[in-house]
Design brief:
Length: about 700
Amino acid sequence: GAGADNDLYINQAIVFIEDAIQYRSINHRVDSKSLWLYRWYYSRTCQWILSLTITVILALAFIEEPSSLTVTSDVRYRLPAWNPPCGLTESIELLCFLVFVADVSVKSYLIGWKEFWKNKWLMAYILTLIVSLTDWIVSLSFFCKESVRIRRILRPFFLLQNSSMMKKTLKSINSTLPEMASVVLLLAVHLSLFTMFAMLLFARTKDNQQDKEWVVYFRNLPDSLTSLLVLLTTANNPDVMIPAYSKNRAYSIFFILFTVLGNLFLMNLLTAIIYNQFRGYLLKSVQSSLFRRRLGIRAAFEVLSSLKETPTSAQQSYVSVGALLQVLQRAEMDSRCKQAIMRSLKMCSCDQLSAAQFQKLFEELDKDAIKQHPPSPDYQSHFMQKMQFAFGHPYFGYLGNVVALANIVSICVVLVMDADKQPSERDDFFLGAINCFFILYYLLEMLLKILAMGLKRYLSYPSNRFDGLLTVILLILEIATFAVYGFPHPGWRPELMGLLSLWDMVRLVNMLIVFRFLRIIPNMKFMALVVTTLLDLVKNLRAFAGILVVVFYAFAITGIMLFKGAVQAFFIFNFLIQASFSIKKVVVLYFKGKKVISWCSAHFQAEVIYCLLYILSVHPIYRWAKIYFVAWWLISSVTWVNLFVALLLENFIHKWDRRCQRESLSDIEYQRTVELMFRDVLEEPTEEELMEKLHQHPHLQLCR
């Protein structure tokens, strides 16, 4: 009947609006049962279960053989790692696979058979599950003794396919690869030419004493290419040129030319190309997200205009305000947006909304998230008003910054004076006394600010919450110190009387005080701009972090399988992380049961990746491992770091351009998403484009 149809239209509108909010495709089944299943699938509980399952299956690598469950990674001190019995992790895996099978089944049903064959991600999802389940069966048939487990490498796919933004980011990266390939090819030509020059320049001579460059770095083609490739990362600089430079200073021209052309020109050119191309492709991706949002809103309008009580017109359709209010009350959306739309509806004097009015209402979804701070208390007393003015003034905050700086300086002075003293020789009286004074000041400052601003307004500022939390922790630690060790006095250095010694408690207090000094950041506009840029990246660019996890995980598992018995497994993940950020360290490798220790910083001044390449080159059987580490360097350091720089630049430039507009709005905080970063340059889809797409919907039949 009419009532059942109206309920269906309302439910369809609710789902379409929720799709628009989350930038989801609307090409799914729209009958009553499918809509209920669709909303259940995208509910917080169901998505939380799916996210937990993905986390569990990824975390299995830390307890599977070889297990990483040890306190220390130092082989001299660590105890034998616990390895789970056969069938334990496999049972957990099976439960995860069952969840994934249910997930892919629901997704396939909801989009329909015709759309399923167009969706490459779903087909890849099913193929990954088939391969993983087959490998799982093989693993059990060998009683968990097989050395290669393909399903481990495939696990990151479950994380990748569950995020639409990660898929778009990956697609953008894939589209950028052709332009990147041209520069990488130029880089390869650069390496090849200079490798040939190096082999000619540093050829073997009759004097063995003068052949150090040839012996160590340019003995043959693979060694020469490796040496220059590592020089491109500046890891073996200046060691690679020292023997030749000792022989003749003129040889330095070769290395200078190689470094200038490779590092200053080609690598920076690669960064510029990645920034330009990736930004363009990401912009296209965000443009398609905007189209999805507009399409979802328009689909909601079309189904609501089909309600029986809605008056129809030959030229134009309308939606009743009452129907929209009913939809808004049941839709899952941000309370700020919902309240803003309802306020706009109440201010509107009309009973029906046209398509343009309907779409304009939901533009609230595209706006910055604005947080307005509560007002300060209105004191009637003249004395309290003066107090409020004095302690709510920015100068009072500046005074607090000066006091915090004085606290840091005093701690530094004491640490310098006591640097060479034994713990038994230290007198903690002075440090304890100044800590007590400054903590009392911080407590007084917090209470006066609460008095001037009111508790709600005080807590509405993140910097105040940061200050207040640290002040409370410092106060608790100080009270605990006094309760256990008494008040500071000359010669105040009692022995350990609890969980922490006096010196440990004082150090903990001082570390928190140093951390509290970060309160000055909001008062320095340029520094605040940099910090907010980084925080926005952390909050909004989860897709990039997710792809980074996928890359790290896949390479780590591959490394464990490739170097089993050659390189201890628990080092692989650590190597990959540190190689990306050029951290020098001692590399401990095991070859055929024999420990080989290379003190890289002492002899090579090199990075982890260079140490690995060198040690692996010593053992001919492992020379092929260079391919693995060079591939890792190209993907993580060259490609991924440049992509991160591109997004960092985009976010920073966007904030820099907008900072002048917002300096006067001190009581308002803005929070932006990746989509909002590009909002000013996006094009709105036309009505014809929206209607054409709606008429192509595989499951929705429009009345017009």
